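hey so u asked for the seq, here:
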Amino acid sequence: MQLEISRVLKRSAAKLHNQELREQLFAVDANFAYRTIRDLPPQSATDQLRYFSLKTNMPSYKELLAQKQNLEAQIEAARKSEISEALSAIQGLVKEFGLTASDVFPAGRAKSASKGSTVAPKYRDPSTGATWTGRGKAPLWIANKDRAQFEIK
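ran it, structure tokens below
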């Protein structure tokens, strides 16, 4: 019985050039219709992509884009809601404790130790006036010489 229905559907589907009718046929029974329609040659590249997505149970590109837009809208709405809640909580705490902007946001920042600091030079070349802090590789004018004669006093 099912084999006879399959033959009838296959003949009917082969005659259908209207994509809407093919989709209605598919909607009757997805698995049965897929087995029926998969033997038909796709009419266009769009049909080939549709058959591929039906075969792998994968949503189409347009469906995924629509889902992405819906998710982005939900994310933005949730973000706005949470920001307003956080802002009202912060305003309540500021009023409760009588805080000022300078209390919440101090003006100065602590300097990072990794940036390094400037050091006053310890050594000066009397002939050129070049200086050296004593850190890093020694310049040629002081290398292998007594450093006491170059000290800045």
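The first helix runs from residue 2 to 15. Residues 62-100 form one domain.
lmk if thats what u needed
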